[in-house]
Design brief:
By secondary structure, the protein is an alpha/beta fold. It is about 35% helix and about 20% strand.
Length: about 750
Amino acid sequence: THWLSCMACSSLGAFPALSPLPLARAHGKSFAHRSDLRQAKRILVKLGSAVVTRGDECGLALGRLASIVEQVAMLQNQGREMMIVTSGAVAFGKQRLRHEILLSQSVRQALHSGQNQLKDMSLPVLEARACAAAGQSGLMALYEAMFTQYSTCTAQILVTNLDFHDDQKRRNLNSTLHELLRMNIVPIINTNDAVVPPPEPNSDLQGVNVISIKDNDSLAARLAVEMRADLLIALSDVEGLYDSPPGSDDAKLLDTFYPGDQHSITYGTKSRVGIGGMEAKVKAALWALQGGTSVVIANGTHPKVTGHVITDIVEGKKVGTFFSEVKPAGPTVEQQTEMARSAGRTLASLEPEQRSEIICALADLLTERKDEILSANKKDMEPCANQTIFSPLNLSIGLRQIAVSSQDSVGRVLRRTRVANNLELEQITVPIGVLLVIFESRPDCLPQVSALAIASGNALLLKGGKEAANTNRILHELAQEALSIHGVKDAIQLVSTREEVEDLCRLEKMIDLIIPRGSSQLVRDIQRAAKGIPVLGHSEGICHVYVDHEASVDKAIKIIRDSKCDYPAACNAMETLLVHRELLRTPLFDQIIDMLRTEHVKIHAGPKFASYLTFSPSEVKSLRTEYGDLECCIEVVDSMTEAVDHIHKYGSSHTDVIVTENEDTAEQFLQQLDSACVFWNASSRFADGYRFGLGAEVGISTARIHARGPVGLDGLLTTKWVLRGEGHTAADFSEQGSMTYLHENLPVAQVLPGRRTTS
């Protein structure tokens, strides 16, 4: 039996049972996917009391309310039709009445008893309907004042459950709301708590005789369907619906809830306020969904997300629980991640020969099924003229190199220490865990990264670009076929659902490392989105070639041509050429310029270079530019030291090159420059995992920790400490203990999973 729990905002009990649905909307059913919510035109936002009121339920949460008003006004000004169903009149009125009572009592007691007895005053119990009557006008005045700041007009509508028994009143309400929306006015709807019936026993604020101010869920659902709203956003004081009580160890937020799921759910406890539980909320949401309105239940009280929770939902981001009538055929991305982690642990426990066998099987499949692969790739290429065809044969060769290098990857002993007699410590290599690799249009990335993940014992979640969907699908099938040899098929998963990259980056409890493969913009976007998950990569590849005044003419021309022209879009292509000042107006400099012109490279002049020229090329807008094309910047420096300073200031710590015949100058450059890759008399294009002999790479990292430069197999491993003793305790080594630390370094021997070393 599953559990589902959430602090409730309302109950259906305050209204009569929901009547048969009105006629279905002409434009059809509710949205099937979150991404479709961007199309929502008419939106109803329901604000529960926990959202509108302060924690003491006496007064309004003005900060939250202001941010919600700002979001609603912004969406209204975008051309959407916004409606609000709000609570809060009772809380606002309670605050006003308590203030008046305290003021009145203090005056009376001061006259009769003196100031010393003011502290003994007690507040009388406030009747809820009186609080509602006193607070309704103030609540509406506050809304009006806030919306006025955004040039948005509002109108108040009060209803009771009796209004829905009268067909004429219902038609009048419907007509009024439509007319307000037509005039671009935001209707603010609330139950008329000043005249509603008393609450049911044991269903109110604990110890306080007030009727619930959180009875608007069914009202919101009813109005959403009657008004044919596209979306109902119900804001509450929890994240959404959970598969077990929130706070329990295994509780997981349900991203999507389907109508059939409620039959296998046991509902948890209700909110600290309100007369209903989550069961009432779910019933109201499902009723609205049946009537053609999409529903999202989300948290409107969290200080970090309140300021954009409504706009995030409308943008289709994974916020709260989305109600959908369309259940996907395959597993969710969360389920895929769990499957991958479980199978990945089994993969890591295999013998190295078994992992190598899987990679070789994948290499064989690439050649055996190459016609099938190329056919799928051809389909992907048809709408994209610039799509790159790749060679399954070349991929197969690279994978076999990885298979060989995987023999001593996982379980390799890096350090052995005899801590004390019969107490030995080892540091060994282990997989990182679950990797999320997000790549754009190049499908050859999939088998390369898959092989590296298999070799390192990591689980892998892949998100490819839609431009190569057919090729990715067949390559993933081959990877899983190879994994099946040793029963770990699920260790590699291809995300084929309509998941946004930003949503994947929020799975911080499930993913251990994100590796973006694509444009610098993709990397930057992922680095911004992945707040809780490390990202391995670089956002820019601003690579420099510095030509020293003692450089060889032939080497300089050859290296500059290769660094810039071999593949201009690569992250390791030269973007800035630094030239020693003494080379200006020399044959070497003229040959460099002639070569670049011959190769159709557009030149941008740096500030110092431009100052030496009468008629200069276009002056560079920024010295920190990654062109990614047949363009580059040329700048002049006075020395090798100035070149290093320039690179430190404007570079991206990726790959930088010096061309010189002076060994001392070269060594100083190599030592002083703080980049991931630093070369002497070699093209920047060598910054590549395959060219380094790593077999393949998952990317190039400019980070300062873990992996740096081209990241191959070793970059996908971390370490753990293994201590083997015979009943040792820390107390044995205290002043009163009988043992002493030895801390002797022992020879490192290879340890494979399941085996133990001997000293």
